[in-house]
Amino acid sequence: MRELPKEMVLPESMVPDEFPDPPVTPKDAATVVLLRDTSAGIEAFLLRRVVGMAFAGGMSVFPGGGVDRRDADADIAWAGPPAEWWASKFACPVPLARSLVCAAVRETFEESGVLLAGPSADSVVSDTQPYAGARKSLVEREFSFAEFLADTGLVLRADLLRPWANWVTPAEEPRRYDTKFFIAALPEGQRADGSTSEADHAEWRRPADAIGLWKAGERGLLPPTWMTLTELGEKATVADAMATDRTISKIIPKVIREGRILRPVLPGDPAYDRAVGHLDARPDDTLG
């Protein structure tokens, strides 16, 4: 695994002064990286979370969110790889795998307006405007995603998703998520609008350009977003990305304090094994 850049640091507000003991149990979550091809190369859809939000405020992220207990509804009309296949890819129980795929499609619709579903197992909606009211109701949890699909006669298109990664929030942080990352191509005719109360800006960016804005201090990126953009930046087309067969394992960053800086490190980094407990160091201590 490649190392994070040395300039990758975490906002002090994300990590408490004292190490949570025991660490907070991560909540299951799903994130979807929407992709499209352009003449300049592959682009990814990013949302900038509203400053002041409890988790990752001000950061540029991909659409996603926590699993809702109703995402486990077994009556959802489903096309594509079954839950057992997804469970094998993410090394998780089958019911959870089903919930994760449902959450991925639901959250993508809620946060970007992109709907990975269609009238049949081999079609996808090209205009999501007729479902704008339902989108708002889903955000407000007035009904479940399964009920929405049943009412509209739509089929969840699991085959439009591909598994990409599994990131777990560092144990040092008070809000933790065990997040499964998916990628998906923007369906023809649809557009991502970013009309969500959780974001104040939405944009399509080539991965290299998004990272460039981060380097210039114009965007905030967390380790999973930086790594995903870096990996996708190596793909020439969306088809290349979708055809990638990845072996997925949990990636759990750790956090070390270097002076007044909080730096995340990944397995393989020389500092990784000595990271635990470093948050107890005095702010004027410099480590490694």
UniProtKB/TrEMBL annotation:
Molecular functions (GO terms): hydrolase activity, acting on acid anhydrides, in phosphorus-containing anhydrides; metal ion binding
Transmembrane portions of the chain: none
Keywords, sorted A to Z: Hydrolase, Magnesium, Manganese, Metal-binding
Presence of keyword Methyltransferase: no
Residue ranges constituting the Nudix hydrolase domain according to the UniProt record: 26-235
InterPro entries: NUDIX_hydrolase-like_dom_sf, NUDIX_hydrolase_dom, NUDT19
PROSITE patterns, alphabetized: NUDIX
Cofactor(s) annotated in UniProt: Mg(2+); Mn(2+)
Protein name: Nudix hydrolase domain-containing protein
